[in-house]
Amino acid sequence: MSTDSTNTVNQAAAKQDPQQLHDDLHEIWGNPKGLKALTIVNHTTLGLRFMVTGMVFFLIGGILAMLVRTQLAMPDQDFMSPDIYNQVTTMHGTVMMFLFAIPMLEGLAIYMIPKMIGARDLVCPRLTSLGYWCYLFGGIILTSSLILEMAPSSGWFMYTPLSSSEFSPDLGSDFWLLGITFVEISALSAGVEIVVSILRTRTQGMALHKMPLFAWYILAMALMIVVGFPPLILGSILLELERAVGMPFFEVAGGGDPILWQHLFWLFGHPEVYIIFLPAAGIISTLIPVFAGRPIVGYGWVVFAIIVTGFISFGLWVHHMFTVGIPQLAQAFFSAASMLVAVPTAIQVFVWLATLWLGKPKMKLPMLWVMGFLIIFVCGGLTGVMLALVPFNWQVHDTHFVVAHMHYVLVGGMFFPLIAGLYYWLPLFSGRMPSENLGRWGFWLTFLGFNGTFLIMHWTGLLGMPRRIYTYDTGMGWDIYNLLSSVSSFVMSAGIAMVLLDIALHFRFGKPAKQNPWNADTLEWANSMPPSAYNFVSLPKVETRHPLWDDPNLPYTMAEGKHSLAVASHGRREMWGTDPITGKVREIIHLPGNSWWPLFAALALAVVCISLLVRVYALAGIFVLIAGVFLLRWSWENGTHPKAAPEAAVTPGDPPLHSRTMDGPGVWAMAIFLIANGSFFLSYLFGWFYLWTVSPEWRMPDISPLSLSLLVAAGLAVSAGCGVMEKLIRGLRHKSDVGLGAGLYLVGGLGAVQVVFTGWALYGANLSPTETSHDAVMLFGLIYALFHGGLAVILTVLQGLRVGYGYVGAYAPFEPVVVAQLWRYNVVTFWVLVGALAVLPRVIGS
Amino acid sequence: MRERNSYTILSNIQRVSSRRVNLIALIAVIVIAGFTAGCSGDKSILDPAGQAARDVTLIWWIMLSFSAVVLIVVTVLWLYAFKPREVTRTAAQERGIARRWIIGGGIVLPVASITALLAFGVPAGQRMLPLGEPAEVIEVIGHQWWFEVRYPNAEGGEVVTANHLVMPVGEPVDFNVSGADVIHGFWIPRLGGKIDMIPGRVNRIRLEADIPAVFGAQCAELCGVGHAHMHLHVESLPREEYDAWLGARQDEQLSALATADADQEEVRDAFRTHCASCHQVAGVSSGNIGPDLSDIGSRATLGAGVMVMEEGAVSQWLKHHQTLKPGNRMPSHGDMDTDTLDALGAWLETLSP
């Protein structure tokens, strides 16, 4: 693990013929053709697939926007009926947010992050693939509702009761809830693996404070996805349960509260704005130093700003709800917090300014888009501060002023940086340079069209035009401004069309790019252009923030195999596993190869989604099981399985394979996933306490229906199981696997006892979950416990089986450590659940 | 080559900008003049008619001016940074400059602005709170897609109307709002901020009208297909007129009005047959699903703001309401003959106290 030992490898590698090495690595990493292309797990290919798919959805969302502007161009138009108009506006927002902005930026991160941190792939390649398929299928299911004229029509934030079955009896809301939840699987999987990749697979020596700023931004984005998406997933599941089965979580008469939906939605929805903005700001922070020809000033300030933004953004959600009648004190708090988020943003803006000021900036095409970003985003930020002021918010909330503000923040804060980034990285994608002329036309038309549309729209809002009305009377003074907005929006569309045309044409006509065409400082430009499937022939030691500025020859020495891991003879996909803080090499990560399982699992989940949509629940149940089998089969091909890494031999002096250690990336992935799960669980507890304390017609039985003794028995069983598990892990840590298999079966048995007792408590409680929200919430919590208990049993028993097969043991102790974390999680959440559902009501009473 | 290009482009930008300054100034003047002239309007926040709205409008203009300055300064700094300069600085000097930018622009500027804004804004918000001595209370309930308006404290008993709200001038009024089905939004832009009308809850907002006038209002929260056709006619009257207006809408007056003309008994029967299960007309029927029609003839509009009330309007509405207000909850009257509809319309128009 020491530098010396890896240097020996370097020297050994240096003797190999680079071309031979390249061919050998290609043999291992290269993409298959034909039908087998569906099995590809490579991050470069999947990143591009994400981005191309995102662009297609962007075009769909854009066409919907043009329909909206056509309808609003003049008063009293009947181009669209109100129902169709509501579908179109709802889908415009939904598609742009969930099917374009987030997946597009995820795709960029998936493509770029390993290249920037000197890795060969993301750390869970099959998860990348699963994420892509879930995104694609979910997106298709959701957009198909438009063709069926059954699209959701309650607005992109789906406020209930409008979206409930009483007021939206058709399938529109179901399309939204199920489709979005399906797509969220993709966001979550990307979030989890990006976090682990950034923390654990940076190249040798790249300490956290040496990593490119873009990686900091993406790390924050990914962590925010992990924490921010679960509340929406919970909300969507609850609302779908209310619609499908009649469990009254949000219905007042049943003891629910529609405002709970708003809390859950905006608990996700506000961080979401920063999930979109942070990667875009990351693009800006990457481009500005390159075009200013100097390092960014205040790297530490930017990191500070990123972290502060991440934290504050979870404390702002109520500012979307100032008009629902929130108590004054809470409003003052959220108002101040919302304004405070301007501080980290302003820090970044002035870091960028100072960097330009102290450098020698060049106004290349990408910088033009950066300039457009700056003007639009600052403007959006300023109106954002205005909106945080409660009395002003009360006036303009739900008017076109807010629509304008939101587009300034999202288009300015995401779309402009995205195009800047696409132009900047185009040579990497294609090996060709963008044109300057068509690109400039595209920029100016987009910029002027955008401001023409949305600057004016602020005014329309101030004149009192509410959002989401499909028509308006003449004589309000709105006519001319709406017409100007509509005309400008078509100018903007022409600009965007020109940009897309420019990008498409450049693949054919662009001038071939030279290596590192913009003279950038980060490692992605050490790739060949376009990059090879394994990114780098050899992985360098990087101890500076600007590897390519400090050593312009680095791309060449890397390609010649003069750095580490330039070995292909073992046939494994390998890269470094490094320390999350210091970047010291800890182990060699061997990655799984191409696989059908992600596609099959996603297909099964798509069938589940469609069956739920058409309410064939038996079929949905069957396919949940099938998807589960696929996923477990996928997890079977790990570690020392013949398809993974049966041989553990490494070059002398190199660290061991991760599957032979107890701290591989899977441990981290499980931990990050459990953070997401914990966020889901906390959102659930929030819902329970919220309904208990706030819901207008909450009804609680005098005596808790749950048997405390059964639940305590279940809790003792899961605790005992976890204790035995810990003992087994301690044994493995001391290289002992005596009684491992039997021990795992015992743990599984204890888990089964927990499941049985919990199920018994549930059965004995005799809940009527369609009558009161109290019972519905209780049922949901117990099912959560049952599901997790059952999952732990299955995974543990499978581990026992793997011990029998010889895949797990003292020499390969990795997997039980992963499963043990689930046990710890289950113990904690189960006792908290017992406390919240069964003990507190007894102590406090109804 | 590339170097030269970027400089050419840059100097182009500068040349163009200096040449265009006059033009831009001219456009700016026209635009500002145009916008100022365009401030008025039935629903314009910028044409306030009450203290709460006036505070917000003032804050808006201050925030706008300040924001414009910030935006212009940032943009100018940005463009100026592209100007080629031959300055050599030591690393220490660079650090110093950077720190001044970041602390000055990134921390001091936003913190100072936010403090000033909160100092200004929080008191303004107080004025919209139902604090202090009790005020006149008007209840407004949002339905898909119309407003029910109730005056619980009217002398002589509660008065109920729909889509037509009358309030006294020059005194604070507490609006207690709620939603009957989905969430609606209560908002009279010229008087002040909005508040959501939520099923199961009562939200309260305090507003005051300075002048006797008519104000536009419409639902602000997406509430289904009729959202764009959910208007509220708001009228402020001097106290005596307001009291008189309420007085004329007491149950017995309205009943007398509806049943006064004995010749209309046939029409009233038609009403009882076709309309009574949903609509109330004092003295005739007591349906409570649709709007109360007891004083419909005196209202300014029909269908929650879809049509102006004039002679023959009600009959037109009855015949074409699904075209005029698509998706509204009243069944189409294709099964009724035109004469009946005309007669019903004419009779309803007489219900004007």
From TrEMBL, chain A:
Keywords assigned: Cell membrane, Copper, Electron transport, Heme, Iron, Membrane, Metal-binding, Respiratory chain, Translocase, Transmembrane, Transmembrane helix, Transport
Residues annotated as transmembrane: 46-68, 88-111, 132-155, 175-201, 213-239, 273-292, 299-320, 332-356, 368-394, 406-426, 438-460, 480-505, 596-613, 619-636, 667-691, 703-724, 744-765, 777-801, 822-844
GO biological process assignments: electron transport coupled proton transport; oxidative phosphorylation; respiratory electron transport chain
Location (main, coarse): membrane
SUPFAM superfamilies: Cytochrome c oxidase subunit I-like, Cytochrome c oxidase subunit III-like
Family (UniProt): Belongs to the heme-copper respiratory oxidase family.
Protein name in the entry: cytochrome-c oxidase
Automatic annotation (TrEMBL), chain B:
Catalytic activity: 4 Fe(II)-[cytochrome c] + O2 + 8 H(+)(in) = 4 Fe(III)-[cytochrome c] + 2 H2O + 4 H(+)(out)
Residue ranges crossing the lipid bilayer per the database entry: 21-38, 58-80, 101-122
The keyword Electron transport belongs to this UniProt entry's keyword annotation: yes
GO cellular component: membrane
Key words, A-Z: Copper, Electron transport, Heme, Iron, Membrane, Metal-binding, Respiratory chain, Transmembrane, Transmembrane helix, Transport
Main location (coarse class): membrane
Residue stretches making up the Cytochrome c domain: 262-352
GO molecular function: copper ion binding; cytochrome-c oxidase activity; heme binding; oxidoreductase activity
Pfam families on file: COX2, Cytochrom_C
Membrane topology: Multi-pass membrane protein
Statement: the UniProt record of this protein carries the keyword Lipid biosynthesis: no
PROSITE patterns reported for this sequence: COX2 (PS00078), COX2_CUA (PS50857), CYTC (PS51007)
InterPro entries per UniProt: CcO_II, CcO_II-like_C, Copper_CuA, Cupredoxin, CuRO_CcO_Caa3_II, Cyt_c-like_dom, Cyt_c-like_dom_sf, Cyt_c_oxidase_su2
Domain of life: Bacteria
Family under the similarity heading: Belongs to the cytochrome c oxidase subunit 2 family.
Purpose of the protein: Subunits I and II form the functional core of the enzyme complex. Electrons originating in cytochrome c are transferred via heme a and Cu(A) to the binuclear center formed by heme a3 and Cu(B).
Protein name, entry field: Cytochrome aa3 subunit 2
Gene label: coxB
